[in-house]
Design a protein that fits this description.
Layout: H1 2-40, E1 51-54, E2 60-64, E3 69-70, H2 80-90, H3 102-115, H4 125-134, H5 141-157, H6 160-170, E4 177-178, H7 180-188, H8 197-204, H9 219-235, H10 241-249, H11 267-280, H12 285-289, E5 294-297, H13 301-314, E6 322-329, E7 335-339, E8 357-358, H14 364-372, E9 381-384, E10 389-390, E11 396-397, E12 409-412, H15 413-419, H16 422-432, H17 434-443, E13 462-463, H18 465-477, E14 487-491, E15 497-500, H19 513-522, H20 540-543, E16 551-556, E17 560-566, E18 570-577, H21 587-605, E19 620-624, E20 640-644, H22 661-669, H23 672-682
């Protein structure tokens, strides 16, 4: 008997020693894990969220995301009904434990041991949040251990409200909706803060089994789960028995997704915004789409609508010709509308930003800006006649005017720009030096390959429409600080400002506002018949459609048609052509760009007051005779207002007997030999 007592006591002591040792080792291990968790610092709470785009009026225009719908709202924006319903069914001791509910763990462990497999979970809200953020949903012990470790880290570094907020913003509610805001929008087409008790209790039951408990998939299961949640809320004192019964009687009205529109708002514009945001935040496009950003854009939905309607109405159905358009604020560079093609669903290629096309004569305003800096004036006379230029390499270059029309005399810069005289342009480029012309293009934000050759004056360089419109905007505004932009501000989901647009005041390249205004006003000449010469001004075909003052420049190559024009308020650029660079052979196809421009500009300006181009202090307006470049007088056949430095204003006045270009042409028409030549040409 004594031997048995001694053996029993020895066994008890060993057991106690082992238990104490295990306890000490367990405590040491826990402390070590705790110290290790603290040493790692707070785990990231980042998860994918929808990025939301706002238009210029501050209203949501669209959202971008991956395969799921995700939003982030603060706990303050969540109604207490959804918070209480979730706590009641998922983890009612959430505010009392340190990430682990040991009562539930013991109960679940006993159930699992009896079944010899994991059949019941005991995860707290903290553990579920950790799993949502960092782990898969596989049922293994390894995952459970990792989940516990991450849950510990969350509890160490974050407040309970932060954890609950994160959980409710990331839990899956089925149908691609992650988070309570996405769920509320999907099921009830309302914000989470507007949820009723009946709606909140229904949604709170879905995460247990998103397919099984979705009211859209299985109403019976969903209603049973809702009843269980409401009963539990009443039991815990969150609601009264009366409110429980009232919520159970409510017939819920679910949002019908079958009639949703599939057409995105300004899809080409949104692509540009996403790319711009990625560049500004130094990340990639996918990160922007799923980063939960709030992106405030410059989009004017009315401008976008009018632009798209004009494209549909202007370009013939069935035509393979493509188009791109950009509308900017003339003074700030804010892009109010953008189309990168006729139909985004057929081709998402953004021709406004990504296509590099030969710009033709739309490049000439920058050339004349460079010339005005080098002793030229709007009245500088250069011969318009067939000319051969000898290049530095010994070769010769012989440009020609459109249809080989020439003045065969000297003309002014103002008239040369209005008529788009190629000989004047190339002569000017050779005179000032193509390298200086290239430098001027860089000043106006034109990048890419720009060959410093005489033919650059005729737009032989390939440049995007977006860059060209941006360059014109800097000319009209007279400022190098402003630039084309689609984003005014970017914030994260907590409204922290990550980026805000500001003019670039650090640029080393300066634009002379007086010279810029001189060129800007000269470009109004493309619509002024007073500048008609050996041919009509280039805007004559659309001048009758215009009801206010505009300036601009058109451009034509074998495969490209351009029109970039502006008012004091807005600039619009249009390109048309074929994606495969084939030649545009039909005259009608060459006119699309001008007519699309005129139609859209007239429409978007209808609600605006008339505005004039305001001269800068360093220039003075003077009326001149377009043909001679002399001051206009009582006997001059025509006159045109031109702005220039006061010191360059001519002193001579045109003679009373001087004839206009039209009068000289009419006299030539009386020559029968000229008519015979025309007949011979047609025969």
């Amino acid at each position: 008997m004594l031997l048995f007592i001694r053996f029993k006591w020895k066994w008890i002591r060993r057991t106690m020693k082992t238990a104490v040792t295990c306890g000490v080792l367990g405590l040491i291990a826990f402390v070590a894990v705790f110290i290790y968790a603290v040493g790692l610092g707070p785990p990231s709470l980042h998860t994918e969220q929808n990025s939301i785009y706002y238009g210029s009026e501050g209203k949501v225009i669209d959202e971008t995301h991956g395969a799921q719908e995700r939003y982030w709202i603060s706990k303050k924006e969540m109604p207490e009904e959804i918070v209480h319903a979730t706590l009641a069914i998922e983890d009612h001791r959430f505010y009392d434990h340190f990430g682990f509910d040991f009562r539930r763990i013991a109960s679940a462990a006993l159930t699992d041991l009896k079944a010899m497999k994991m059949v019941e979970g005991a995860s707290t809200i903290t553990q579920q949040y950790a799993r949502n953020l960092y782990l898969s949903h596989e049922k293994t012990w390894t995952r459970k251990i990792k989940e516990a470790f991450y849950a510990m880290r969350l509890e160490i570094f974050y407040e309970k409200d932060e954890i609950l907020e994160g959980y409710l913003n990331t839990i899956y509610y089925g149908h691609g909706a992650y988070g309570i805001e996405a769920a509320s929008r999907y099921y009830f087409d309302k914000h989470a803060k507007e949820l009723t008790l009946a709606e909140a209790s229904m949604l709170a039951g879905i995460p247990k089994g998103p397919s099984y408990y979705s009211p859209l998939n299985n109403a019976e299961n969903a209603n049973s789960r809702q009843e269980q949640i409401l009963s539990r809320m009443e039991e815990l004192g969150y609601i009264s028995p009366n409110k429980e019964q009232q919520a159970l009687k409510v017939s819920l009205d679910y949002y019908d997704h079958s009639g949703e529109a599939t057409k995105a708002v300004a899809p080409y514009f949104q692509d540009k915004v996403t790319e711009e945001a990625a560049r500004l935040l130094e990340t990639d496009v996918d990160a922007i789409k799923t980063g939960g950003y709030h992106i405030y854009t410059t989009l004017n939905k009315n401008h976008q609508k009018e632009l798209e309607q004009s494209i549909d109405q202007t370009i013939a159905n069935g035509s393979e010709i493509q188009t791109a358009s950009v509308i900017m604020d003339s003074q700030t560079g804010a892009v109010t509308a953008l189309a990168g093609g006729k139909n985004y669903s057929e081709s998402a290629y953004n021709r406004a930003t990504d296509a590099q096309r030969m710009v033709g004569s739309t490049i000439k305003p920058f050339l004349y800006y460079a010339a005005l800096l080098r002793d030229y004036t709007p009245l500088t006379m250069v011969a318009s006649k067939p000319t051969t230029f000898e290049l530095k390499n010994g070769k010769v270059y012989s440009p020609s005017n459109y249809n080989n029309y020439y003045a065969n005399r000297k003309i002014t810069m103002a008239q040369a720009l209005a008529l788009s005289d190629n000989i004047y342009a190339v002569t000017t480029n050779v005179d000032i030096g193509p390298e200086n012309f290239v430098d001027t293009l860089r000043t106006f934000g034109i990048s890419g390959e720009l060959p410093a050759v005489p033919s650059l004056a005729l737009g032989t360089a390939s440049i995007s429409l977006y860059e060209m419109v941006d360059g014109y905007m800097r000319m009209v505004s007279g400022s190098e600080a402003v630039r084309g932009h689609t984003i005014t501000k970017i914030t994260d989901r907590h409204d922290n400002v990550l980026y805000k647009y500001e003019p670039d005041t650090d640029t080393e390249r300066n634009i002379d506002p007086n010279v810029a205004f001189t060129v800007t006003h000269m470009m109004t000449g493309m619509f002024d018949t007073a500048l008609n010469g050996y041919m009509s001004v280039t805007g004559a075909s659309i001048a009758d459609q215009l009801t206010r003052m505009y300036g601009g420049k058109s451009g034509t190559t074998d495969s490209d048609s351009w029109m970039i024009g502006f008012s004091p308020q807005y600039i619009m650029g249009v390109w048309t052509g074929y994606d495969d660079n084939r030649a545009i052979t039909k005259t009608k196809d060459h006119q699309y760009a001008k007519h699309l421009w005129a139609d859209t500009m007239e429409t978007i300006h209808q609600p605006l007051p008339a505005a004039a181009f305001t001269p800068t202090p360093g220039v003075k307006g003077v009326y001149i005779n377009p043909k001679t470049g002399k001051l206009s007088g009582p006997g001059c056949p025509k006159e045109r207002l031109v702005y220039m430095d006061e010191e360059n204003i001519p002193t001579e006045t045109c003679e009373q007997n001087e004839k206009s270009d039209e009068e000289e042409i009419n006299e030539e028409l009386k020559d029968d030999s000229w008519l015979d030549g025309i007949v011979d040409w047609f025969s």
